[in-house]
Amino acid sequence: MPSEVRRVGQISRGCRGEPSRPIALGDCPASRERRDRANHYRCSMTSDSTPVLRIANVTKRFGLLVANDSISLELGKGEVVALLGENGAGKTTLMNILFGHYVADEGTVEAFGRMLPPGDPRAALGAGVGMVHQHFTLADNMTVLENIALGTQNPWSWRLDRSGARARIRQLATDFGLAVDPDRQIAALSVGERQRVEILKALYRDARVLILDEPTAVLTPLETEGLFRTLKMLVARGLSIIFISHKLNEVMAVSDRVLVLRGGRLAGERITADTTRQELAALMVGREVMSPPVAPVVRGGELLSLDDVSTAARAGGSALDHVSLRLHGGVITGLAGVSGNGQAALAALLAGALAPSAGTMRLAGAAVSDWSPRKALEGGIARIPEDRHAVGSIGDMSVAENVIAERYRSAQFSRHGFMDWKAARAFAEELIRDYDVKCPSPDARIRLLSGGNMQKLILGRALYPDPVVILANQPTRGLDVGAVAYVHRRLLEARGRGAAILLISEDLDEILALSDEVRVMFKGKISEPSPRGERSIQQLGELMAGHGMGEAADAA
Amino acid sequence: MIEAFEILFTASFWVAAIRIASPLIFATMGELICERAGVLNLGIEGIMVAGAFAGWLTVYLGGDLWTGVAIAAMAGAMFGLLHATLTVPLGLSQHVVGIGITLLATSLTYFTYRIVLPEVTSPPRIASFQPLPVPVLSEIPVLGPALFNQTPLTYLAFVTVGVVAWVLYRTPLGLAVRAAGENPSAVEAQGISVTAIRTGAVMAGSALMAVGGAFLTMSAFNSFFFEMINGRGWICIALVVFGSWRPGKALLGAILFAAFDAYQVRLQQITGGAVPYQLFLMMPFVLSILALVVMSRRAAYPKALMIPYQKGER
Description:
The complex is a heterodimer of chains A (556) and B (314).
Chain A: H1 2-16, H2 34-44, E1 53-62, E2 65-75, E3 80-85, H3 91-98, E4 106-111, E5 114-115, H4 121-126, E6 129-132, H5 144-149, H6 162-176, H7 191-204, E7 209-213, H8 221-236, E8 240-245, H9 248-254, E9 257-262, E10 265-271, H10 277-285, E11 302-310, E12 323-328, E13 332-336, H11 343-351, E14 358-363, E15 366-367, H12 373-378, E16 381-384, H13 399-403, E17 414-415, E18 418-419, H14 421-434, H15 451-462, E19 469-473, H16 481-496, E20 500-504, H17 508-514, E21 517-522, E22 525-526, E23 530-531, H18 537-544, H19 549-555
Parallel strand pairs in A: 3-8, 3-9, 6-7, 7-8, 13-20, 13-21, 16-19, 19-20
Antiparallel strand pairs in A: 1-2, 1-4, 4-5, 9-10, 11-12, 11-14, 14-15, 17-18, 21-22, 21-23
Chain B: H1 2-6, H2 11-36, H3 44-60, H4 65-87, H5 94-116, H6 143-148, H7 152-170, H8 172-182, H9 184-189, H10 194-220, H11 232-242, H12 247-271, H13 277-296
Helix pairs in contact in B: 2-7, 2-10, 2-11, 2-12, 3-4, 3-5, 3-10, 3-11, 4-5, 4-10, 7-8, 8-10, 11-12, 11-13, 12-13
C-alpha cells in the first residue's frame, strides 16, 4: 500500500517539475503513547532532531494593533501542537504569516531547516506546508478533483490529467479515511465533506505540516470525531499538525502540546498531558472563567405555540413538517440538530420572515394572521440571528444605526418621520456600556467590531426592552470562552425575567448547559421534549442522526 | 404568411445569420473569458470599435489581412491590459472602468481616424476576406453554404468556441480561470496569483472582442464607419448571461440572435412598408430580452464576478 502511494505521487510531482520528496511513511510508530511522544520531542529537540517548522520572533502590526508580538513556535515531527486563544488573539494572523498570506513586520519562518521567503504561499506549499482555512478555499462550481488539481499541473499543458489525479485522490482518500467522490461538485457536498477535500488538497501536494484553522467550528459532533481519527492517522505517518482552536475539550483531546495566545502575545506553553482545562482557560482569558449558575426553572404561561405547523419548501434546508411546539415563560427550550434540518425554516417562521402554510401559530394565546417581521417584533419576539454578519447586522452602517434597526420607527427614535439621532446615539452608548462592548464610538461601522462585540450588541438590541419570546439561533457560534459565558449569562437572566427562549444550537454542550427541556430536529420534524439532564450527548447524537426520530415524531 | 415561413428554408437567410453571428461569437467568447475569471468587461463596445479600426487600418496601410487581425487583437489586448490594471490590482469599480474604456477606445479611434484620414468624404475601401467554400460540404442544400461557404474569419469564430471550451474545461489553466471567478482565495491558496490569472483573462478576452470588431471591417464590410459596432458589444454581454457562462450555449445564443436579425430584415421586405420598419428592428432585441428572462433565472453566475480580490484581506 505505501509503495503504491509513493508511485502515484511521483507521477504527479513529475508533472509539476519539482524534485521528488518521498513521503515519510511509518517513521513514527503509531503505537507510541502521546505523552511519550511529547516528552521525546521535548528532550530530543535541542540535540539531534531539527524541528520541521520554526517560527522565530514574528511580529505583525495592523496600524496601531499589534496582532502578533514577537511570537516563536517550534513544531516537531509527528507532533500535534494546539494554538489556543480567544478570537482576536492572533492565531490566524500567525498562521497566515507562516503560509505567506501576510508579510511579517519582523521575524522569520523556517520549514525543514530552510527559510521561507515572506509573502509567498507557493513557497510554503512547495516546502510541504498545507493549510486548511477556517473559511474553505474551494470553488463551488468545480468538482472535488478540479479543486484538488488546481495549481498542481503545468498551467500551459494542453490537457488536464484527470485520470492520474483521480487515482491519486482515491488512494489518499482510502489511506487516510477521507471518503469523498472526486467527481462530485463542491456545491453538492456537506460541510464535513468539504473539509475533507481541503485536507486532501494538502495531502495531494505532499504536505508534511498541516495547519488546521478552527477545523471543528463547522462540524457536527460525528464529523468532529471523524476528523480526529484522520488526524491520528496523519500523525502516525509522520505528519506534523498545528491545530488552531478556542475549544478546550478539543485541544485536550488531540494535541501533544499547547501554545496559548492572548492579545497577540504568547501567554503560555504546556504539555497537554500535564495541564488541565481550567489552567488553559485561565491562560487564554487571563482570569478564571466560571460558567453561569442556573437557577431552578419557574415555569410560566404558554407564550408561543405551534400546532401541526408546516411551511413551504425552500432552498437550503428542510421545511417544517407538521411541527408542534410550545414555548413557556421562564423556560429555555433547546433545539439540537445538524443544521439544514429545518432550523432555518423554524427561525424564519418565528422571526416573521415565513408564514405557516398549514397549522396554527399562536402568540400569547391568539392565532396569528398576516404574519410578518414587523408583527413578530411588535408581538415581542426578539431574535438573535444565526449569521450575525449577513442577517444580524449591516456591516457598513454605524453601531447606532444597527442597534435601532429593529425599532427605528418607534417614538423613541423618530418624530414625525424624522430620525432622532441623538436618542439613537444615546441608546447605542447605553448598550455599549451595559454590555461591555469594546467599540470606539456609536458612529463606528459595525463591520470593524470583533465577532464577540458584534454579538453583544445584537444581544443588547434583542433584549431591549424585555421581550416576550427570544429566538436565539446559534447565539455563540464562533465566540470565545469569555463571550460565550457572557451570552449564556444574559440569556439566563432573560429566562429569570420570564421570557420564553428557543435556543437553536449545533453545540450540544451549550444545549445541555442551558436548556430546561431539549428537543431534537431532524428532517423538518421535532422530537418530544426531554427535561434537563435526561438525555445524554450520545442519545441526542443518535436522534440528530435520525435514529428513533420516526417514532418520536409520530408520537408528537 | 407562407412567405414569412419560407424564409427559414432559404440558403441566403442562413448565410446571413451565420455572418451576422460571427463578430458576436468572437466578442461573446471574449466577454465570457473575462467574466469566468471574475471581471465584467464593459469596455467591450469600445474595444470592438478599436479592433474594427485597427484591423482595417493595417490593411488600408498595406498590411496583409491576417496581419490586420493580429494587430486588432493586440490593440484589444492593450485596452484589456489597461482595464485589468485598473480593476484587478487596483480593485476599482468594474462598471466605471468598463464604461471609461468604452468611451476612451471609441474616442481614440475616431481621433486616430481623423488624424490618418483628414479629408475623406466616402470611407475608403480595402480588399476584405472573401468566402472560402469548403469542397463538397458547401454543396449541402440550405445549411451547406451557411456553414461551409463563409470567410476564413467565420470559420475561425467557430474554432474559437471550441478552443475556449477546451481551455476552460480541459486544461489546468482553465481550472485556474474558473476558480478565479468563483472563489479567488481558492486560487491564491493553491499558490497561483489571482492577479496574473485575471489580468491574462481580461487581455485574452479583450483581444477576442477586438477580433470580433475587426470581422465587421474586414469580412462583413470592407471599410470603417463610425457607429458601425452599434451596440453589438452590449448584446454580447447579454449573450454571456443567456449562455449561462458556457461557451456552447453562448454560441447558440449568438446564432439565435443573428437569425432573428437576419429574419427581420427579410420580413421587412415582404410586408413592403405596411408595418413600420422600426418594429422589425426591435424584434431581435425584444426576443433576446424574453429569452434572457427565461434562461438567466436559473443561471449559475460566477460567484466572484465583479468582486475585486485583495490579497491578504479577510
